[in-house]
Specification:
single chain; 452 residues; alpha+beta; Porin; 60s Ribosomal Protein L30, Chain: A; 2 domains; twelve-stranded antiparallel barrel; elongated; disordered N terminus
Length: 452
Protein backbone atom coordinates (compact mmCIF):
# COMPACT_ATOMS: atom_id res chain seq x y z
CA UNK A 1 0.00 0.00 0.00
CA UNK A 2 1.13 3.58 -0.65
CA UNK A 3 0.22 6.67 1.35
CA UNK A 4 0.74 10.29 0.48
CA UNK A 5 1.47 12.37 3.57
CA UNK A 6 2.26 16.03 4.19
CA UNK A 7 6.04 16.49 4.02
CA UNK A 8 7.79 17.60 7.22
CA UNK A 9 8.67 21.26 7.54
CA UNK A 10 12.39 21.15 6.83
CA UNK A 11 14.89 23.81 7.87
CA UNK A 12 14.84 25.22 4.35
CA UNK A 13 11.07 25.45 4.32
CA UNK A 14 11.05 27.11 7.75
CA UNK A 15 13.50 29.72 6.43
CA UNK A 16 11.28 30.33 3.38
CA UNK A 17 8.18 30.73 5.55
CA UNK A 18 9.92 33.16 7.91
CA UNK A 19 11.26 35.18 4.98
CA UNK A 20 7.82 35.31 3.37
CA UNK A 21 6.29 36.43 6.66
CA UNK A 22 8.82 39.23 7.08
CA UNK A 23 8.39 40.41 3.50
CA UNK A 24 4.60 40.39 3.94
CA UNK A 25 4.81 42.45 7.13
CA UNK A 26 7.10 45.02 5.49
CA UNK A 27 4.87 45.15 2.41
CA UNK A 28 1.72 45.66 4.46
CA UNK A 29 3.41 48.38 6.53
CA UNK A 30 4.56 50.21 3.41
CA UNK A 31 1.17 49.96 1.71
CA UNK A 32 -0.80 51.18 4.70
CA UNK A 33 1.67 54.03 5.20
CA UNK A 34 1.07 55.08 1.61
CA UNK A 35 -2.68 54.69 1.95
CA UNK A 36 -3.11 56.68 5.13
CA UNK A 37 -0.16 59.10 5.25
CA UNK A 38 0.58 60.23 1.70
CA UNK A 39 -2.89 61.68 1.00
CA UNK A 40 -2.41 64.03 3.98
CA UNK A 41 0.98 65.16 2.68
CA UNK A 42 -0.35 66.27 -0.70
CA UNK A 43 -2.73 69.05 -1.60
CA UNK A 44 -6.22 67.94 -2.55
CA UNK A 45 -6.16 67.92 -6.35
CA UNK A 46 -8.50 66.28 -8.82
CA UNK A 47 -9.90 66.51 -12.33
CA UNK A 48 -12.49 69.17 -11.46
CA UNK A 49 -15.23 66.68 -12.36
CA UNK A 50 -17.68 64.58 -10.37
CA UNK A 51 -16.97 61.20 -11.95
CA UNK A 52 -16.99 57.48 -11.19
CA UNK A 53 -14.58 54.58 -10.81
CA UNK A 54 -12.66 53.54 -13.92
CA UNK A 55 -10.15 51.34 -12.00
CA UNK A 56 -12.39 48.26 -12.22
CA UNK A 57 -10.05 45.59 -13.63
CA UNK A 58 -8.29 43.89 -10.70
CA UNK A 59 -6.48 40.53 -10.37
CA UNK A 60 -8.37 37.73 -8.60
CA UNK A 61 -7.97 37.89 -4.82
CA UNK A 62 -7.69 34.10 -4.37
CA UNK A 63 -5.33 33.51 -7.30
CA UNK A 64 -7.83 31.36 -9.21
CA UNK A 65 -8.60 31.49 -12.91
CA UNK A 66 -6.57 33.60 -15.35
CA UNK A 67 -5.23 36.94 -14.03
CA UNK A 68 -8.47 38.90 -13.37
CA UNK A 69 -10.95 36.26 -14.60
CA UNK A 70 -12.11 34.18 -11.64
CA UNK A 71 -12.03 30.37 -11.74
CA UNK A 72 -13.90 27.89 -9.53
CA UNK A 73 -10.78 26.80 -7.62
CA UNK A 74 -10.61 27.67 -3.90
CA UNK A 75 -7.57 27.63 -1.58
CA UNK A 76 -9.00 24.83 0.61
CA UNK A 77 -10.34 24.84 4.14
CA UNK A 78 -8.68 27.57 6.25
CA UNK A 79 -5.84 27.84 3.74
CA UNK A 80 -4.79 31.43 2.94
CA UNK A 81 -3.84 33.06 -0.33
CA UNK A 82 -2.21 36.47 -0.79
CA UNK A 83 -1.20 38.54 -3.79
CA UNK A 84 0.43 41.86 -4.60
CA UNK A 85 0.13 43.25 -8.12
CA UNK A 86 1.77 46.39 -9.45
CA UNK A 87 0.24 47.74 -12.65
CA UNK A 88 0.64 50.82 -14.77
CA UNK A 89 -1.92 52.25 -17.21
CA UNK A 90 -1.90 55.15 -19.65
CA UNK A 91 -4.56 57.52 -21.01
CA UNK A 92 -7.47 56.10 -19.01
CA UNK A 93 -9.66 59.15 -19.72
CA UNK A 94 -9.04 61.23 -22.82
CA UNK A 95 -12.05 63.28 -23.88
CA UNK A 96 -13.08 66.49 -25.52
CA UNK A 97 -13.21 69.53 -23.23
CA UNK A 98 -16.64 71.21 -23.61
CA UNK A 99 -15.04 74.62 -23.01
CA UNK A 100 -12.81 74.58 -26.11
CA UNK A 101 -13.55 71.17 -27.73
CA UNK A 102 -9.85 70.32 -27.48
CA UNK A 103 -8.67 66.82 -26.58
CA UNK A 104 -7.84 66.59 -22.88
CA UNK A 105 -6.04 63.82 -21.02
CA UNK A 106 -8.14 64.00 -17.87
CA UNK A 107 -6.45 60.93 -16.36
CA UNK A 108 -3.19 60.45 -18.22
CA UNK A 109 -1.26 57.88 -16.19
CA UNK A 110 -1.91 55.66 -13.15
CA UNK A 111 0.47 53.39 -11.25
CA UNK A 112 -1.57 51.21 -8.95
CA UNK A 113 -0.89 48.38 -6.52
CA UNK A 114 -3.50 45.76 -5.58
CA UNK A 115 -2.97 44.12 -2.20
CA UNK A 116 -5.22 41.05 -1.99
CA UNK A 117 -5.86 38.27 0.49
CA UNK A 118 -8.28 35.34 0.59
CA UNK A 119 -9.07 32.37 2.81
CA UNK A 120 -10.96 29.18 2.12
CA UNK A 121 -13.92 28.13 4.28
CA UNK A 122 -14.60 24.48 3.61
CA UNK A 123 -13.73 23.16 0.16
CA UNK A 124 -16.39 25.06 -1.79
CA UNK A 125 -16.18 28.62 -0.46
CA UNK A 126 -13.65 31.41 -0.06
CA UNK A 127 -13.68 35.07 0.96
CA UNK A 128 -11.37 37.69 -0.53
CA UNK A 129 -10.36 41.29 0.14
CA UNK A 130 -8.59 43.66 -2.27
CA UNK A 131 -7.16 47.08 -1.37
CA UNK A 132 -6.25 49.10 -4.50
CA UNK A 133 -3.52 51.66 -3.75
CA UNK A 134 -2.86 54.48 -6.22
CA UNK A 135 0.86 55.15 -5.90
CA UNK A 136 0.86 57.75 -8.66
CA UNK A 137 -1.84 59.45 -10.72
CA UNK A 138 -1.23 62.18 -13.27
CA UNK A 139 -4.04 64.13 -14.84
CA UNK A 140 -5.53 67.51 -15.64
CA UNK A 141 -7.95 69.77 -13.78
CA UNK A 142 -10.46 71.03 -16.36
CA UNK A 143 -11.22 74.19 -14.38
CA UNK A 144 -7.68 75.27 -13.56
CA UNK A 145 -6.40 73.95 -16.92
CA UNK A 146 -3.29 72.64 -15.19
CA UNK A 147 -1.86 69.24 -14.41
CA UNK A 148 -1.84 67.44 -11.09
CA UNK A 149 -0.24 64.40 -9.50
CA UNK A 150 -1.79 62.55 -6.59
CA UNK A 151 -1.69 59.40 -4.47
CA UNK A 152 -4.43 57.66 -2.57
CA UNK A 153 -6.55 54.55 -2.34
CA UNK A 154 -9.20 53.07 -4.58
CA UNK A 155 -12.48 51.43 -3.64
CA UNK A 156 -12.22 48.53 -1.20
CA UNK A 157 -13.38 45.21 -2.71
CA UNK A 158 -14.90 42.33 -0.71
CA UNK A 159 -15.57 39.03 -2.53
CA UNK A 160 -17.39 35.82 -1.58
CA UNK A 161 -17.03 32.91 -4.02
CA UNK A 162 -18.41 29.38 -4.09
CA UNK A 163 -18.60 26.58 -6.63
CA UNK A 164 -21.54 24.28 -7.32
CA UNK A 165 -19.62 21.93 -9.61
CA UNK A 166 -15.89 21.40 -9.66
CA UNK A 167 -13.80 21.34 -12.81
CA UNK A 168 -13.08 17.60 -13.04
CA UNK A 169 -12.72 14.86 -15.60
CA UNK A 170 -15.92 14.67 -17.63
CA UNK A 171 -17.48 17.89 -16.28
CA UNK A 172 -16.89 21.63 -16.29
CA UNK A 173 -16.67 23.83 -13.21
CA UNK A 174 -19.51 26.16 -12.31
CA UNK A 175 -19.33 28.80 -9.58
CA UNK A 176 -20.68 32.11 -8.35
CA UNK A 177 -19.10 35.28 -7.01
CA UNK A 178 -20.73 38.07 -5.00
CA UNK A 179 -18.84 41.35 -4.72
CA UNK A 180 -19.32 44.41 -2.54
CA UNK A 181 -17.32 47.56 -3.36
CA UNK A 182 -17.02 50.24 -0.68
CA UNK A 183 -16.55 53.90 -1.74
CA UNK A 184 -13.08 54.56 -0.30
CA UNK A 185 -11.76 56.01 -3.57
CA UNK A 186 -12.20 59.49 -5.04
CA UNK A 187 -14.83 60.08 -7.77
CA UNK A 188 -13.13 63.41 -8.51
CA UNK A 189 -10.08 61.48 -9.71
CA UNK A 190 -12.11 58.60 -11.19
CA UNK A 191 -10.61 56.15 -8.65
CA UNK A 192 -13.86 55.33 -6.86
CA UNK A 193 -17.64 55.47 -6.82
CA UNK A 194 -19.64 57.86 -4.66
CA UNK A 195 -21.69 55.01 -3.18
CA UNK A 196 -21.31 51.25 -2.59
CA UNK A 197 -21.78 48.92 -5.57
CA UNK A 198 -22.72 45.25 -5.72
CA UNK A 199 -22.00 42.61 -8.34
CA UNK A 200 -23.08 39.04 -8.96
CA UNK A 201 -20.89 37.01 -11.31
CA UNK A 202 -21.29 33.58 -12.91
CA UNK A 203 -18.07 31.54 -13.30
CA UNK A 204 -17.45 28.64 -15.69
CA UNK A 205 -14.14 26.88 -16.35
CA UNK A 206 -12.71 23.71 -17.80
CA UNK A 207 -9.26 22.18 -18.03
CA UNK A 208 -8.21 20.34 -21.19
CA UNK A 209 -4.66 19.69 -20.05
CA UNK A 210 -2.40 21.47 -20.86
CA UNK A 211 -5.03 24.12 -21.76
CA UNK A 212 -7.31 25.78 -19.23
CA UNK A 213 -10.30 27.96 -20.24
CA UNK A 214 -12.39 30.21 -18.01
CA UNK A 215 -15.25 32.69 -18.54
CA UNK A 216 -17.11 35.15 -16.33
CA UNK A 217 -20.39 37.04 -16.84
CA UNK A 218 -22.02 39.30 -14.29
CA UNK A 219 -24.21 42.25 -13.41
CA UNK A 220 -22.99 45.24 -11.38
CA UNK A 221 -25.48 47.45 -9.54
CA UNK A 222 -24.33 51.07 -9.20
CA UNK A 223 -26.01 54.39 -8.48
CA UNK A 224 -26.55 56.48 -11.60
CA UNK A 225 -23.81 59.10 -11.82
CA UNK A 226 -23.70 61.96 -14.32
CA UNK A 227 -20.23 63.34 -15.08
CA UNK A 228 -20.39 67.04 -14.24
CA UNK A 229 -18.03 69.94 -13.74
CA UNK A 230 -17.88 70.42 -9.96
CA UNK A 231 -17.55 74.22 -10.34
CA UNK A 232 -19.83 75.19 -13.22
CA UNK A 233 -22.19 72.20 -13.07
CA UNK A 234 -21.82 71.67 -16.84
CA UNK A 235 -22.60 68.12 -17.95
CA UNK A 236 -20.18 66.06 -20.03
CA UNK A 237 -23.00 63.95 -21.47
CA UNK A 238 -21.50 60.86 -19.83
CA UNK A 239 -23.02 58.78 -17.05
CA UNK A 240 -22.42 55.59 -15.12
CA UNK A 241 -25.16 53.18 -14.10
CA UNK A 242 -25.78 49.45 -13.76
CA UNK A 243 -23.38 47.48 -15.92
CA UNK A 244 -23.04 44.06 -17.50
CA UNK A 245 -19.55 42.65 -16.86
CA UNK A 246 -17.83 39.98 -18.93
CA UNK A 247 -14.47 38.31 -19.43
CA UNK A 248 -12.71 35.19 -20.66
CA UNK A 249 -9.21 33.78 -20.34
CA UNK A 250 -7.04 30.92 -21.53
CA UNK A 251 -3.89 29.45 -20.03
CA UNK A 252 -1.39 27.03 -21.56
CA UNK A 253 1.02 25.06 -19.39
CA UNK A 254 4.42 24.69 -21.02
CA UNK A 255 6.28 21.34 -20.83
CA UNK A 256 9.17 23.01 -18.99
CA UNK A 257 10.62 22.50 -15.50
CA UNK A 258 7.98 20.03 -14.31
CA UNK A 259 5.21 22.01 -16.04
CA UNK A 260 5.70 25.04 -13.80
CA UNK A 261 5.54 27.69 -16.56
CA UNK A 262 2.27 29.05 -18.02
CA UNK A 263 1.37 31.40 -20.84
CA UNK A 264 -1.96 33.18 -20.45
CA UNK A 265 -4.22 35.72 -22.11
CA UNK A 266 -7.52 37.30 -21.14
CA UNK A 267 -10.11 39.82 -22.32
CA UNK A 268 -12.27 41.72 -19.85
CA UNK A 269 -14.82 44.49 -20.08
CA UNK A 270 -18.13 45.99 -19.01
CA UNK A 271 -20.85 48.17 -20.46
CA UNK A 272 -23.71 50.26 -19.11
CA UNK A 273 -27.17 48.72 -19.36
CA UNK A 274 -28.80 51.97 -20.51
CA UNK A 275 -27.68 53.91 -23.60
CA UNK A 276 -24.85 51.54 -24.59
CA UNK A 277 -22.05 53.37 -26.39
CA UNK A 278 -18.40 52.65 -27.13
CA UNK A 279 -17.26 55.42 -24.77
CA UNK A 280 -19.03 53.67 -21.86
CA UNK A 281 -17.80 50.16 -22.82
CA UNK A 282 -14.18 49.72 -21.68
CA UNK A 283 -12.59 46.47 -22.85
CA UNK A 284 -8.99 45.43 -22.19
CA UNK A 285 -6.92 42.57 -23.62
CA UNK A 286 -3.82 41.23 -21.84
CA UNK A 287 -1.21 38.52 -22.12
CA UNK A 288 1.54 37.31 -19.85
CA UNK A 289 3.70 34.57 -18.41
CA UNK A 290 3.55 32.84 -15.03
CA UNK A 291 6.11 30.83 -13.07
CA UNK A 292 4.82 28.59 -10.26
CA UNK A 293 7.02 27.26 -7.44
CA UNK A 294 6.36 24.18 -5.33
CA UNK A 295 6.33 26.28 -2.13
CA UNK A 296 3.11 28.02 -3.25
CA UNK A 297 4.71 31.20 -4.59
CA UNK A 298 3.96 32.32 -8.15
CA UNK A 299 5.28 35.21 -10.27
CA UNK A 300 3.39 36.86 -13.12
CA UNK A 301 4.29 39.56 -15.63
CA UNK A 302 2.70 40.84 -18.80
CA UNK A 303 0.91 43.65 -20.55
CA UNK A 304 -1.87 44.68 -22.86
CA UNK A 305 -4.06 47.59 -23.89
CA UNK A 306 -7.64 48.72 -24.26
CA UNK A 307 -9.44 47.61 -27.41
CA UNK A 308 -12.23 50.21 -27.27
CA UNK A 309 -12.14 54.01 -27.18
CA UNK A 310 -13.84 54.26 -23.79
CA UNK A 311 -13.39 55.78 -20.35
CA UNK A 312 -11.25 53.33 -18.40
CA UNK A 313 -9.88 51.61 -21.50
CA UNK A 314 -6.09 52.31 -21.31
CA UNK A 315 -3.81 53.04 -24.21
CA UNK A 316 -1.28 50.68 -22.56
CA UNK A 317 -1.18 48.39 -19.54
CA UNK A 318 1.77 46.63 -17.84
CA UNK A 319 1.71 44.49 -14.71
CA UNK A 320 3.82 42.30 -12.43
CA UNK A 321 2.65 40.31 -9.43
CA UNK A 322 3.79 37.93 -6.71
CA UNK A 323 1.37 35.59 -4.97
CA UNK A 324 1.31 32.89 -2.33
CA UNK A 325 -1.32 30.14 -2.15
CA UNK A 326 -1.02 27.70 0.76
CA UNK A 327 -3.52 25.37 -0.90
CA UNK A 328 -1.52 25.27 -4.13
CA UNK A 329 1.63 24.60 -2.11
CA UNK A 330 0.28 21.33 -0.77
CA UNK A 331 -1.48 20.45 -4.04
CA UNK A 332 1.78 20.83 -5.95
CA UNK A 333 3.61 18.73 -3.35
CA UNK A 334 1.04 15.94 -3.45
CA UNK A 335 0.71 16.08 -7.23
CA UNK A 336 4.44 15.47 -7.65
CA UNK A 337 4.23 12.46 -5.35
CA UNK A 338 1.09 11.19 -7.04
CA UNK A 339 2.80 11.27 -10.43
CA UNK A 340 5.44 8.88 -9.10
CA UNK A 341 2.75 6.27 -8.41
CA UNK A 342 0.69 7.01 -11.51
CA UNK A 343 -1.53 9.30 -9.44
CA UNK A 344 -3.26 6.34 -7.77
CA UNK A 345 -3.70 5.15 -4.18
CA UNK A 346 -5.37 1.79 -3.57
CA UNK A 347 -6.39 0.37 -0.20
CA UNK A 348 -8.50 -2.56 1.04
CA UNK A 349 -10.60 -2.33 4.22
CA UNK A 350 -11.91 -5.65 5.58
CA UNK A 351 -15.08 -6.40 7.58
CA UNK A 352 -16.47 -9.13 9.80
CA UNK A 353 -19.25 -11.41 8.53
CA UNK A 354 -22.54 -9.53 8.07
CA UNK A 355 -21.04 -6.37 9.56
CA UNK A 356 -20.64 -2.84 8.17
CA UNK A 357 -18.80 -1.28 11.12
CA UNK A 358 -15.14 -0.33 10.97
CA UNK A 359 -12.68 -1.95 13.32
CA UNK A 360 -10.18 0.31 15.10
CA UNK A 361 -7.40 -0.79 12.75
CA UNK A 362 -9.58 -0.25 9.65
CA UNK A 363 -10.63 3.21 10.86
CA UNK A 364 -6.97 4.15 11.23
CA UNK A 365 -6.29 3.09 7.62
CA UNK A 366 -9.24 5.17 6.37
CA UNK A 367 -8.04 8.21 8.34
CA UNK A 368 -4.65 8.11 6.63
CA UNK A 369 -6.19 8.28 3.17
CA UNK A 370 -8.67 10.95 4.32
CA UNK A 371 -5.78 13.11 5.57
CA UNK A 372 -4.16 12.94 2.13
CA UNK A 373 -7.37 13.87 0.34
CA UNK A 374 -8.21 16.70 2.75
CA UNK A 375 -4.88 18.36 1.94
CA UNK A 376 -5.28 18.09 -1.85
CA UNK A 377 -8.58 19.11 -3.42
CA UNK A 378 -7.54 17.68 -6.80
CA UNK A 379 -7.85 14.10 -5.48
CA UNK A 380 -11.07 12.10 -5.84
CA UNK A 381 -11.97 8.72 -4.32
CA UNK A 382 -14.09 5.83 -5.52
CA UNK A 383 -15.27 3.69 -2.58
CA UNK A 384 -16.57 0.21 -3.61
CA UNK A 385 -18.28 -2.15 -1.18
CA UNK A 386 -18.00 -5.97 -1.57
CA UNK A 387 -19.35 -9.07 0.22
CA UNK A 388 -18.92 -12.80 0.21
CA UNK A 389 -21.54 -15.03 -1.47
CA UNK A 390 -23.50 -15.98 1.65
CA UNK A 391 -27.02 -14.51 1.42
CA UNK A 392 -29.12 -13.28 -1.48
CA UNK A 393 -27.69 -11.07 -4.21
CA UNK A 394 -29.97 -8.15 -3.23
CA UNK A 395 -29.02 -8.45 0.44
CA UNK A 396 -25.33 -8.50 -0.44
CA UNK A 397 -25.71 -5.46 -2.71
CA UNK A 398 -27.25 -3.52 0.20
CA UNK A 399 -24.60 -4.77 2.64
CA UNK A 400 -21.82 -3.74 0.23
CA UNK A 401 -23.34 -0.26 -0.04
CA UNK A 402 -23.62 0.09 3.75
CA UNK A 403 -19.93 -0.81 4.06
CA UNK A 404 -18.94 1.71 1.39
CA UNK A 405 -21.10 4.41 2.99
CA UNK A 406 -19.51 3.72 6.38
CA UNK A 407 -16.07 4.35 4.91
CA UNK A 408 -17.26 7.46 2.99
CA UNK A 409 -18.85 8.93 6.13
CA UNK A 410 -15.64 8.36 8.07
CA UNK A 411 -13.66 10.16 5.35
CA UNK A 412 -16.12 13.09 5.39
CA UNK A 413 -15.77 13.43 9.16
CA UNK A 414 -12.01 13.68 8.65
CA UNK A 415 -12.39 16.73 6.37
CA UNK A 416 -12.93 15.27 2.87
CA UNK A 417 -15.70 17.07 0.97
CA UNK A 418 -18.40 14.60 -0.11
CA UNK A 419 -18.18 15.98 -3.65
CA UNK A 420 -14.82 14.17 -3.95
CA UNK A 421 -16.19 10.74 -2.90
CA UNK A 422 -18.10 8.36 -5.18
CA UNK A 423 -19.80 5.40 -3.44
CA UNK A 424 -20.51 2.12 -5.26
CA UNK A 425 -21.58 -1.40 -4.31
CA UNK A 426 -20.65 -4.53 -6.26
CA UNK A 427 -22.06 -6.89 -3.63
CA UNK A 428 -20.90 -10.44 -4.27
CA UNK A 429 -20.23 -9.95 -7.99
CA UNK A 430 -16.48 -9.19 -7.82
CA UNK A 431 -14.81 -11.63 -5.40
CA UNK A 432 -11.15 -11.17 -4.60
CA UNK A 433 -10.76 -14.83 -3.58
CA UNK A 434 -12.70 -18.09 -3.58
CA UNK A 435 -15.96 -18.14 -1.61
CA UNK A 436 -15.50 -21.86 -0.95
CA UNK A 437 -13.09 -21.31 1.94
CA UNK A 438 -13.34 -19.38 5.20
CA UNK A 439 -10.18 -17.46 4.39
CA UNK A 440 -11.40 -16.59 0.89
CA UNK A 441 -14.75 -15.31 2.12
CA UNK A 442 -12.96 -13.14 4.72
CA UNK A 443 -10.92 -11.49 1.95
CA UNK A 444 -14.08 -10.85 -0.08
CA UNK A 445 -15.79 -8.95 2.78
CA UNK A 446 -14.07 -5.66 1.96
CA UNK A 447 -14.21 -2.08 0.75
CA UNK A 448 -11.84 -0.90 -1.96
CA UNK A 449 -10.71 2.74 -1.89
CA UNK A 450 -9.25 4.05 -5.14
CA UNK A 451 -7.90 7.61 -5.06
CA UNK A 452 -6.75 9.49 -8.15
Amino acid sequence: MVYLSQPPLTKGRKTQCLLLMRVSILLCTAVFALVFLLPFCAAAQDTGLDGFNVLTFHPTADGSGVYSIYGTQTPGHLKPAARFTLQGMGALIEAGNPVNNAAAKIVDKVIEGDLSAAIGVGERLDFGLTVPVVFYERGMNVNMQNGFTQTGVGDLIIDAKAFAFKDAKGSAGLGFLARLTLPTGDPGRFTGWSAPTGEFRLIADKSFKPVYIVANAGYRIAAETQVRNNVTGASWNLSDDDRVTFGAGVQYTLPLQKKSWDLFADVEGDTVVKNVREITTPVIARGGVQKRFSNGIALQAGGGRGVTDALGSPSWHAFASISFDAGRRWRESHREKAEKIDQEISELIFFNFGDSQLSEAAASEVDKIAATMASDEDLNATVRGHTDSIGSASYNERLGRRRAETVAERMSRQGVDAVHINVESLGETAPLDSNKTTEGRARNRRVEILVR
